[in-house]
Amino acid sequence: MSYKSFHSISLLLVLAVVAVADGEDVTYSVRDLGTLGGANSRAYAINEQGWVVGEAETKEGHLRAFLWTPDIGMRDLGTCGGDTSRAYAINERGQVAGEAEDEEGRVQPFLWSGEGGLKDVPLPAGFREGYVFDLNNFGVLVGGGEGDVGTRALVWTVDGVSVPEALRKRGASLAYAVNDVGDIAGQVEFNPEGDYVSHAFVMGVNGMKTLIDPDSTEWSSAALALSGAGVAVGYAELSNATHAVRIVAGAPTEDLDTLANVYSVAHDINEDGVAVGLFVSSHEDDDRAFCSSAGTMTDLNELLETDEPWLIVEARGINKSGEIVGYGLLGERERAVLLTPRAGGAEVRPQVRIVEPAADRQFWEGNTVSMEASVEANGKAVRRVTFFSSGVVLGSVTSAPYRLEWRNPPPGPHHLVAAVVSSDGLIRRSPRVPMQVQIRDVADPAVALLEPNDGTALALGDELRIAAEIVSENARPLAIRLLLDGQEVGATNGFFIGYDWKPTQTGLYTWVSVATDLQGVTAESAPARVNVTTVDDL
């Protein structure tokens, strides 16, 4: 079992900035770390030298643990005799740890070094599989294993491997992080019989601190990373959401989520207290990477110095220099990325704020949202102003007045941001402006295309699911149709229609759904455009 299976956990982007703890303005360049010959890769950790580890596809389609260095690039670390491996951690000595399949397909914990290569590390008696999630600079490894007693946290030291004594009489557990002091962080079920509710713990010389009261059986949490000072980050289920949290012994647990997301999780924290992770702003939104500093969470996609259409999905590691690793989407491929910060210092930048719409405005589905930004150039020539909705680019304006029309915004909560870019590349990001788009509660028909999203790219020969649904809460019996470039391809008398489409030619296609009620009143969905290209063009 891997880290991802224990707790459940895709546009043109431009420049923006965020004020960090030391008062400097920071943006990030994006470096694609590549693959091992396949299509996809993910980065999971980075050390202070800027060495990165993770998993990447080979040309045969196997996932392999990799080590990337600026001088050599990406190298395959091998396996324990099977096809698959993943690297989760790297220390300052260049040692790498993770999990790898053996010849029988069992997952085994491994340690890799430049001198000895990849070697499995021992498991206690009664354990069949295992994995290492972190290691420090003094030879301590932490992770977990699957055995006769279920899933249990494991710690490897010079004295061997064992389940920590404080966890032995508990239920399922995992250890995710260890620092050079020897503090260990993870999650544990208090009930030895298994209550399926795991709680964050930080364990050190002063004993074990848990995030949730041991008598509680209601909320789940986990501590996923540790700083050298013993500050942990992870996630906790709150009253109506799961949020990234910061855990300090002897202090109340701190909610890091200042964006009011439905879900967020912090994967790492550096010695300056900057945390990184993943968030989802609404149930209809895509996953996005964040950084959190000085009490403010920011979408990393609004801080990128790139004109390529990246969507940074998840940030998994950060070092003291502020370099961030994770993975993003580019051309529908998952790629491991290295985000390198660039401080702007005290140089004067343009200022920008959104003056329309006002904060907390409510719109109805089908409305057009008029957006306007006010810019103070501060002696700089303005190259463009770009408008975002929850990290997604809505469009750019290159001259005043800086106005943009957002047609048919999807229902749900949105956070608008404007970013101004000067002619010499200096950037400033506006404060977020929250707004809400409501679904119309009327008897007239209303229809929405559920799949695909507008702007979907599809490889020629691949199949795509087309789906539409009546969304009027008070709708009378309706008929629903699917139109491809104005031609009907399917119809039904129900409230839902699905169609499997396999295009035979490349090109840009437009899908629309149309609903009709018994009196003949019709409604049309927003169009969904699909670009069909060859595989090489994706």
Can you give a write-up of this model?
It is a single chain. The chain is mostly beta strands and 538 residues long. A hairpin with a 4-residue loop joins strand 36 and strand 37 (427-429). Helix content is 1%, strand content 56%. Strands 31, 33, 34, 36, 37 and 38 form a 6-stranded mixed sheet that branches. Strands 40, 42, 43, 45, 46 and 47 form a 6-stranded mixed sheet that branches.
List keywords for this structure.
mainly beta, six-stranded mixed sheet, Immunoglobulin-like, globular, Methylamine Dehydrogenase, Chain H, single chain, disordered N terminus, 1 helix, 538 residues
What best-fitting shape do the alpha-carbon axes yield? globular
Major β-sheet profile: 6 strands, mixed
Count, helices:
1
For this structure, what is the CATH homologous superfamily of the largest domain?
A: Peptidase/esterase 'gauge' domain
The end-to-end span amounts to 32 Å
Oligomer: single chain
Summarize this entry quickly.
The protein contains 1 helix and 47 strands. It is mainly β. Strand 16 and strand 17 form a beta hairpin.
Topology readout:
Blueprint (H helix, E strand, L loop, with lengths): L2 H4 L11 E2 L5 E8 L4 E10 L5 E7 L4 E7 L3 E4 L4 E10 L5 E7 L4 E7 L3 E4 L6 E9 L5 E7 L2 E8 L2 E3 L10 E6 L5 E6 L8 E7 L2 E4 L10 E6 L5 E6 L4 E6 L6 E2 L7 E7 L5 E6 L7 E6 L2 E4 L11 E8 L5 E7 L2 E11 L7 E6 L4 E4 L3 E9 L5 E8 L2 E6 L4 E6 L4 E11 L4 E3 L3 E6 L8 E5 L4 E4 L4 E7 L7 E7 L2 E6 L3 E6 L5 E11 L4 E3 L3 E6 L5
Parallel strand pairs: 31-38, 40-47
Antiparallel strand pairs: 1-2, 2-29, 3-4, 4-5, 5-6, 7-8, 8-9, 9-10, 11-12, 12-13, 13-14, 15-16, 16-17, 17-18, 19-20, 20-21, 21-22, 23-24, 24-25, 25-26, 27-28, 28-29, 30-32, 32-35, 33-34, 33-36, 36-37, 36-38, 39-41, 41-44, 42-43, 42-45, 45-46, 45-47
